[in-house]
Design a protein that fits this description.
The complex is a heterodimer.
Chain A lengths: L5 H7 L2 E4 L5 E4 L2 E4 L5 H10 L9 E4 L16 H17 L2 E3 L9 H7 L8 E4 L13 E4 L2 H10 L1 E4 L3 E8 L8 H12 L7 E6 L1 H4 L3 H9 L8 E3 L4 H8 L2 H4 L4 H8 L12 E6 L6 E3 L7 E3 L14 H11 L14 E4 L1 H4 L2 H11 L9 E4 L4 H9 L2 H7 L25 E4 L14 E4 L2 H10 L5 H6 L1
Chain B lengths: L7 E9 L6 H4 L19 H4 L21 E4 L11 H9 L3 E4 L4 H8 L4 E4 L2 H13 L4 E5 L4 E4 L5 E3 L4 H9 L3 H7 L1 H14 L1
Parallel strand pairs in B: 1-2, 2-3, 3-4
Antiparallel strand pairs in B: 1-5, 5-6, 6-7
Classes of the chains: A alpha/beta, B alpha/beta.
Chain lengths: ~475, ~200
């Protein structure tokens, strides 16, 4: 047999039919939906007079526009309320499992899927959300789709998809102090740009990736889309099996042993061919921060913003971006005052992120001028944090643990960063206005966010870890 | 369900040379709370079209009366970021029928094709020349012939072949829909599920 990549093995085993010269009909094992990108898809089903083909394979959560305070009360914003109620209504009408606001399993769709054991190695997963790539951390083919495609999956459990090319990204070596999974992915994106992996599906390998926890791997795969990749995956290994073994609904499956055996075959064969390969040295990575308005505009936290002349054709876009941020080419931003800190999102809203942040701020105090939004990724993360006493640690340091949701990552709810204000954010996008009209986002790791919250300025976490 | 057919489009163009235009700029998240597909054109490029107080930003190309047309010509990596199909709905609702760039983000390209908005990929060098030409001569007309996969600069007659997946081309020409296709192969999908259950 020809040696195959892990991606090929999973993709090919899910092709129902290949259309000549066209896309593949790809079978989807697990479909997640949320309130923002699904209503028009359900309307489409009604217009056609059809029903959901396999309702048991779709799961819904309300996450994008919900408030992260007083979730017990009715949602105040009328449009948000209508959207959440529409999702609830659509799920009851079509028999879809729904974790609404206040449900013990509610949370950000990409945090909920893995923690409930819905995300399994070797499967295909889609959701009307670009950060669906997160689930690739378990060795799954997971990617974001548009609403027309959500309708396709609801109608047929399949999507028509052209097969992407394959990109292998290897990261070898050990990480320096204060450097996290978030810094690895921000570093990679800064090297290959925000569109550099367009048309590709990534497999991440190498010793630095293997050393990461499942949470860290999810952070890496999550941001695959930020370099344009269709998605990113990591071959399952002991870390993956142990994580899944801790989830009761997975561990108690009668076929768990045979699943484990099958998962062991999920790796790229020796001698398989990728369309492109890149290798990075983990020991060269410093804590990273972005200075512009796309995730490719990142640098080591103590570095200087590049000069405009180095940008070639992109000079005008580069200058517009730097100007929006209130920075200048050639400027150093370490020590620049900040106004907000956001810990949360499907990138860094898991329990490990809250632990890292809490441990860092323990015994310290938040800078008085900084407003912090600490938002758990799910109800389960929130409850776990409370069980571990993280809420108290945070409170003693001047922070408040809010309720779960996408929150300030895209600011569809009231968690907005005001115009002109600087936010060190653990989310995934620093686009203009992403965190509210005029907001200025500096993407970074939970450790950098914690260090900056304490000092009130952009701070290298390694400097405080040394003390 | 039959959608709008696409065959030949002849129009002037609107130039947007910026690179990496993300879908948050095309339609900001605060306008995504609608539960229908209509009306998004009003807020297309909202924060570039209007300033904080709601006044028109005269410098933005959509507010420049010199530039009109059904073809948007944009810098590379157009439509990156969020998967929101609302971005395509907004562009189409505003009145564009094709977008030309040197490359599109994958999800945006799929969403466009699923809504009859034609994404046309041209070489970077050509894009640069096209943008310069439109800026100098705003009445430059471009003809896009989907059947022949030709993009023609009408003033000079220069023509360029563009790529499109044959299946998608057929769908656009005939106004066909992926869901009709999938519903027609339901038996095949069920058979796949059966084979797969045996394999497990």
């Amino acid at each position: 047999m020809t040696p195959a990549t892990l991606f090929d093995k999973i993709w090919d085993s899910h092709v129902v039919r290949s259309i000549e010269g066209g896309p593949d009909v790809l079978y989807i094992d697990r479909h997640f939906i949320h309130e923002v990108t699904s209503p028009q898809a359900f309307d489409g089903l009604r217009t056609r007079g059809i029903t959901v083909f396999r309702p048991g394979k779709t799961t819904a959560t309300a996450d994008h526009n919900i408030p992260t305070k007083e979730q017990e009360l009715p949602i105040k914003d009328e449009l948000s309320l209508k959207q959440v109620e529409t999702l609830n209504h659509n799920c009851s009408e079509f028999g879809i499992e729904y974790f609404g606001i206040n449900h013990p399993k509610n949370g950000i769709v990409h945090v909920v899927g893995p923690e409930l054991g819905y995300t399994l190695p070797g499967t295909t997963i889609v959701c009307g959300d670009s950060h669906t790539s997160t689930h690739g951390a378990f060795g799954a083919i997971a990617f974001g789709i548009g609403t027309s495609e959500v309708e396709m999956v609801l109608a047929s459990q399949c999507v028509l998809q052209p097969k992407p090319k394959k990109l292998k990204i290897t990261v070898n070596g050990s990480l320096q102090k204060g450097v996290t999974a978030k810094d690895i992915i921000l570093y990679i994106i800064s090297k290959i740009s925000a569109g550099g992996a367009t048309g590709y599906f990534v497999e991440y390998c190498g010793t630095a990736i293997e050393a990461l926890s499942m949470e860290g791997r999810m952070t890496i795969c999550n941001m695959s889309i930020e370099m344009g990749a269709r998605g990113g995956l990591i071959a399952p290994d002991l870390t993956t099996y142990e994580y899944l073994n801790r989830i009761p609904s997975v561990e108690s499956r009668p076929d768990f042993k045979s699943l484990l055996l099958r998962w062991r075959s999920l790796k790229s064969d020796e001698g398989c061919v990728f369309d492109r390969e890149l290798v990075f040295d983990a020991s060269k990575i410093r804590p990273m921060i972005t200075f512009g308005t796309n995730p490719g505009m990142g640098m080591a936290i103590d570095d200087t913003i590049p000069g405009a002349e180095s940008q070639g054709e992109g000079k005008a876009s580069f200058l517009k971006s730097i100007d929006y941020m209130g920075f200048k080419p050639g400027e150093k931003i370490l020590g620049h005052p900040i106004d907000y800190v956001f810990l949360g999102s499907c990138t860094n809203g898991r329990i490990e992120d809250l632990r890292a942040f809490a441990q860092f701020v323990k015994g310290r105090k938040k800078a008085p001028g900084v407003t912090a939004l600490i938002v758990p990724g799910s109800k389960r993360v929130e409850q776990q944090a409370i069980r571990e006493g993280l809420d108290k640690v945070l409170k003693d340091a001047g922070f408040e643990l809010r309720q779960p949701g996408c929150s300030s990552c895209l600011a569809m709810n009231e968690d907005k960063i005001p115009a002109g204000k600087y936010a060190v954010s653990t989310s995934n996008r620093n686009f203009e206005g992403r965190q509210g009209p005029g907001s200025r986002t500096l993407l970074a790791s939970p450790l950098t966010a914690a260090a900056s919250a304490i000092t009130g300025k952009i701070t290298d976490p390694a400097d405080l870890l040394n003390n | 369900m039959l959608k709008v057919k696409f065959n030949i489009l002849e129009s002037t163009c609107v130039p947007l040379p910026l690179e990496n235009t993300d879908t948050d700029q095309i339609i900001p998240a605060r306008f995504l709370s609608a539960t229908s597909r209509e009306g998004f054109g009003e807020n297309l490029f909202r924060d570039w079209r209007y300033d904080k107080t709601g006044n028109k930003n005269e410098e933005f190309v959509l507010n420049n009366p010199k530039f009109r047309g059904e073809i948007l010509v944009a810098g590379k990596n157009f439509g990156c970021g969020s998967s929101r199909e609302h971005a395509v709905w907004a562009i189409a609702d505003y009145g564009f029928r094709a977008v030309v760039s040197s490359f599109f983000a994958d999800i945006f390209r799929n969403n466009s094709l699923n809504n009859g908005l034609l994404p046309v990929v041209v070489p970077e060098e050509f894009l640069k020349r096209l943008l310069a030409m439109i800026r100098e001569f705003p009445d430059t007309k471009v003809r896009i012939d989907l059947e022949k996969q030709d993009l023609i600069l009408l003033p000079t007659g220069e023509s360029l072949k563009f790529e499109i997946n044959p299946y998608k081309k057929e769908c656009l020409l005939k106004g066909l829909d992926d869901i009709d296709y999938l519903l027609n192969i339901k038996e095949m999908i069920t058979a796949y599920e059966f084979r797969n259950s045996l394999r497990q």
